[in-house]
Amino acid sequence: IRQPYPSARVIKHEDRQSIADHPVHPPASVGDPWQCDFPPSLGYTIRARDGVFQMYSSPDSEIPVQGFPYPNLETFCRDMQRLCTMISDGPLKSFCYRRLSYLSSKFQLHVLLNELRELASQKAIPHRDFYNIRKVDTHIHAASCMNQKHLLRFIKKTLKNHSDEVVSAGGMTLKQVFESMKLTSYDLTVDMLDVHADRNTFHRFDKFNSKYNPIGESRLREVFLKTDNYTGGKYFARVINEVASDLEESKYQNAELRLSIYGKSRDEWDKLAKWAISNRVYSDNVRWLVQIPRLFDIFKSNNILDNFQQLLDNVFLPLFEATNDPNSHPDLHRFLQHVVGFDSVDDESKPENPFVDRDVPKPAQWRETDNPPYAYYQYYMYANMTVLNHLRM
């Protein structure tokens, strides 16, 4: 027997009572956000074993310490093969289509029957509408977190106030960089920046990637939108802090911004952490995710890396070292308190062999110039993150 729908008066009374007991705003951070506890060293020796980092009780030990389980490659391949078989199964696809059609129709029926009732109940809740509920942008690269008008305003302001600052190793000032492009601040427009991703970038990763270069110039990206440049990334930090200030002023908007770690060198993490701390890039409304572009083939072709294990070492070993002994990477230890996840990005339209089996070369043996399949990246990133999370618990 269905219960009668409660009246708006009852809903209004009950919601007011519950909301009164709940704080409207989250607790504000107190003190220096980059200050944190430094626990003592765990004393483990960290080594990679078939592409996955393991903890050892001593440098001479050959048996990993128990308590850091992770799925092995054979299990991953078996589960992936089963999933691919399910995806290509005809009767299952027919069932899923009927099921989704049924659920869609059921939802439309729910809307027709209850739309007015739900609207009345929403109106009965005080101080809650679309503009004052918590909203989080969950997939934004930090280099594109500002709108194009904000970026234009920031570039003009920086060119006006800091035109004589040296911004390149060749000794060029900011003013000289713009003069070399035959541009002045008066010439700059939103259309000239051309950083807005429109319909022409759909399924065109090359065009989408070019939108990160203001005016199509990689020099401006290097100056304004990089953390590791001649100026120490201070312009990039300033514009991010301006965006964060806007988020704080709106109160109900939050963002998870992406920063890139490429895996080209072992000190990338330390440089990124130093940039964040030295430039005070922090906001209660912002959390950080780290994205790892799948660019091993480019690094291999340019003789930056010899095998895939080196990329894994550069990405994960500093994290394990900072967790095992925070004093070995103090800035990184502080920075990791505000990192909430990882992401992997690349041009997904490129053809590749999607299957990985247990006979695939181990990371130390992968020396081909071809990029490993997405599933290969996925397994070794997930396995290492699993061990890392166990270690950090």
UniProtKB/TrEMBL annotation:
It holds the Pfam family AMP_deaminase. Signal peptide: none annotated. InterPro entries: AMPD, Metal_Hydrolase. One of its GO terms (cellular component) is cytosol. One of its GO terms (molecular function) is AMP deaminase activity. Belongs to the metallo-dependent hydrolases superfamily. Adenosine and AMP deaminases family. This is AMP deaminase 2. The gene is Ampd2_0.
